[in-house]
Amino acid sequence: MDTFAAEIADFVTCLETGRRPLNTEDEGIAVLGIILAAYESSRTGSAAEVLSV
To answer: Would you say 16 and 10 are in contact if contact means Cβ atoms under 8 Å apart?
Structure first.
């Protein structure tokens, strides 16, 4: 299964039906903070602070 295609298809269904996505925007922002900290840690070689809103 192509998980990216499934994710996009579910998002389109949400738009069409008004159903909320499984994950909230707050969860998406939190995950992005972790990903950015991982990239920064990889770049610098030391632990990076996880950004939060």
So the answer is: no
